[in-house]
Design brief:
Number of strands: 20
Order of helices and strands: HEEEEEEEEEHHEHEHEEEEHEHEHEEHEH
Radius of gyration: 22 Å
């Protein structure tokens, strides 16, 4: 380890320590459990049902016993004279942290290691805006979480007549899918999308806080449970946008293998061999990182069969029409993670088969043998 890296790690450790000490001094505003006059409910709480009838896995993970859950109401709140610091921490004029924007849980607030900056925010460089919807949070750079926890929130308010008066804020130098997805799905012009650095402080006339459309509690064993009707609504909107563009699907591959050869984990060690064998079954290997957001939506819309190792790229199944998903999942990984894509396919009634494999190394890579291959193509 270089001396420079050691110094960075020491600074980060000290920063986390200071942040942890300041947490007990924070005042928290929990609009989910204690709404105030700024809160507008757009969908009353109902019942979440998860349909496993199209799903197969050769085990009985704890979440297969999940039946129904009570859904929290979906809401938005326009916070007057708010301040936004770090990665999406919203502070109202009473100096309370509006916890909803930190994925509504204190653990995600603490993961930002910025509790002390709530008190020292006057020292941060300042930019003023009129109306802002902040889309920054702890997990925004992950394609799955961006889709399920950010695009879903914009989906709840983008068609409100007053939404055009708000600018949406993403992080500076974020992944390209952030801006591309906002422009494609919600038709946002360039001037409505602004960026923020981590050290920047934003002061607004009004800050729009939109609730996260999922729950996470003791009943769910601290597993994220997403709202099926939101998944369905995002699916319909993507299809509508594709049709509006009159996109051509004639030459698109129908059966695809999502390649992870450029990833650092969960790769197919003998991928070239497997691709050659899959070609006989009319499969095409695709590297999603080489495609734009629109190209990924278009690809999955036309897909009939998708083979993929567990990874964020599978999130694109949410844009499909009626594909069959074959997901390879490492036995060594927390089985909770297999539930996340299950919720998408369950909400959309897609067939979903999970093949659990034994990893061949600590990176959870796999050598696909004859047994696994036969399961994939059968």
């Amino acid at each position: 380890m270089t001396e420079k890296l050691k110094k960075i790690k020491r600074v980060l450790k000290i920063n986390r320590y200071i942040s942890d000490r300041f947490y007990r001094l924070l005042k928290i505003k929990d609009l989910r459990n204690n709404p105030d006059p700024t809160t507008v409910v757009v969908h009353e709480g109902g019942t979440i049902e998860i349909d496993f009838s199209n799903y197969t896995i050769a085990s009985s993970p704890y979440w297969k016993s999940f039946d129904t859950f009570k859904q929290d109401p979906i809401f938005y709140a326009e916070i007057p004279e708010a301040t936004i610091i770090s990665k999406g921490i919203v502070i109202n004029k009473s100096n309370e942290v509006v916890i909803e924007n930190c994925i509504f849980q204190k653990e995600y607030l603490n993961e930002l290691c910025s509790n002390h900056f709530v008190y020292f925010k006057k020292l941060l460089p300042t930019t003023n805006y009129k109306n802002i919807l902040p889309l920054l949070n702890r997990l925004d750079n992950n394609y799955y979480h961006w889709t399920m926890e950010t695009l879903s929130r914009v989906l709840l308010v983008y068609d409100q007549p007053w939404f055009k008066d708000y600018k949406v804020m993403i992080k500076r130098d974020g992944s390209k899918f952030m801006k591309e997805s906002l422009q494609f799905l919600f038709q946002l012009p360039d001037e409505q999308i602004v960026t923020k650095t981590i050290i920047q402080k934003i002061i607004t006339v009004k800050t729009l806080v939109v609730s996260f459309p999922h729950i996470r509690n003791q009943q769910s064993q601290l597993t994220n449970v997403y709202y099926p009707h939101i998944i369905q609504k995002l699916n319909r909107l993507a299809h509508q946008r594709l049709m509006e563009r009159g996109m051509d699907f004639q030459n698109m591959p129908k059966n695809i293998l999502i390649s992870r050869k450029n990833a650092v984990e969960r790769r197919i060690v003998n991928e070239d061999e497997i691709i050659n064998k899959l070609e006989q079954h009319h499969f095409t290997a695709v590297c999603l990182e080489k495609l734009s957001f629109i190209e990924q939506v278009r690809l999955f819309y036309g897909a009939e069969k998708v083979i993929a190792l567990h990874g964020a790229g599978i999130t694109n199944i949410i844009y499909g029409k009626n594909p069959i998903l074959i997901e390879l999942f490492p036995k060594e990984r927390n089985i909770r993670d297999a539930f996340y894509f299950t919720q998408i396919t369950a909400a959309l009634k897609f067939k979903h088969h999970v093949i659990v494999y034994n990893s061949c190394n600590p990176q959870q890579d796999v050598i696909i043998d004859e047994n696994i291959f036969n399961q994939m193509v059968s």
